[in-house]
Structures are given as C-alpha cells and as structure tokens.
Amino acid sequence: MPQLSVVIITFNEEKNIARCLESIKGLADDIVVIDSFSTDNTQNICKQFQVNFIQHAWEGYSNTKNYANSQAKFNWILSLDADEALSEELKLSIEELKKSDKLNTAKFNRITNYCGNWIKHGGWYPDTKIRLFDKTIAKWTGIIHEELSFSKQIDTLHLKGDCLHYSYYSIEQHYKQADTFTTIAAKDLYEQGKRSSYLKMIIGPVLKFIRDYFIKFGFMDGKAGLTVARISAYATYLKYKKLNDLHQS
What's the whole-model pTM score? Predict the structure, then answer.
C-alpha cells in the first residue's frame, strides 16, 4: 500500500488543530506540522498526536507550504489547512484510493462553516481543491488563495466527500481577515503595475454583491449568506481603495 504524508501549516490554531488531526487518524503514515512560532497552545496540542512538529518562520502561503512539502517523508502528500478536517466520507474515499495500491492526484469539494452555518451557495461551495498530489511534480504558487502548479500533464480524480472548513467563528474575524487579505492583494496588484479608479471602487463591490448573492444564490443561505455577500463586496472595495492609495502615496 502506498504511503501518505499529511502536511499542515499552523499559526495560533489551538481552536482548530485537534479536530484536523483527529480527522486523519489511521489515514496518515506521516504527519508534518510547520508552525510559524505560535504563541497559543498549538504546539502542546500537536504533541498529543504523532506529528513531526517543526517551527519555521513565515514566508507567505506558497513558500511556507512548499517548505512544508519538503519536510514530508513520502512523495504523496495530502495538504490540509489547520482549520480544515476530513468528513468521514472523504476520509473513506482516500482510504479506498490507498488500498487500490496506486495513489492519484485528486481533488475534492470543500464546504465552509461560517459562524456555525454551512455555506452552500454564493460561490463558496463546492470550492473544489486539488489537495492530494505527488510533491515531485507539484509546487504551490500565488500570493493568497495559493494553487498547485504541475511540471507535467496530470489526470485528476474527484473524490467523494467534503473537506470541512471552519473558517470564521465571528463576523469580526471575517472583517479582520478581509482587511489582511486585501492589503496583500492590493500590494500584489501594485507590483504588477495594475491601477485602480474611483469607478472600480464603486462598481466592483456592486457587481461582486450581485454575483454572489443573486446569481450564485447566496440568498439561499439566509442571514449568513447575506453577511458573506456583504463583506465580500466590502473586501472588493477595500482592495481597490488600497491599490489606489498605493499609487497616490
């Protein structure tokens, strides 16, 4: 049976990491946790599990994940974020793939829990991700919302089951992350020579809200769907405003 490394990056994830590690029990042959010097109880929780816990300075999402992959014992990697966990169906799908004696690049759906509500519309689901791959031909790229790039043509399986993503415990946490991510995104656009305008700051958020709430049926997620669409639209405004500010500074 092929052996599988599970790779996770962490920073102050005491709320999430135990659930993530519990979900991969019996599946992982090697667990690597790359921690960017957490100041909470993350390390102590990880010590309760059989993991290779390594503290390493934060280098950005892609670079940190690529470093994490380099520390894995085996070529085949299942990459998870600390705020994610495998559903029982997804875990079973991966186990069955391992039993077939031939691992394959695979993707699966991810469903997000937002302040206690599962978000099934608005562009947040199925949110399909490639997370099972051979590290010898794969590399993480991108500043935020990182993606895998492959050095050769691959066939990808779509596994049954969901990855459970526990993203936000409060609306305030969502606003805080929107502020952080839009700063990173605006800087990236600025370095690419992209420009903003007052028109983009007005039209962009409106179009984002219409797409997510109406066209992608965000309204079907009730009050949570409205909140998600509203903050997503606000984040679009922030991104263009910060980009505009960078050009004017």
Answer: 0.94
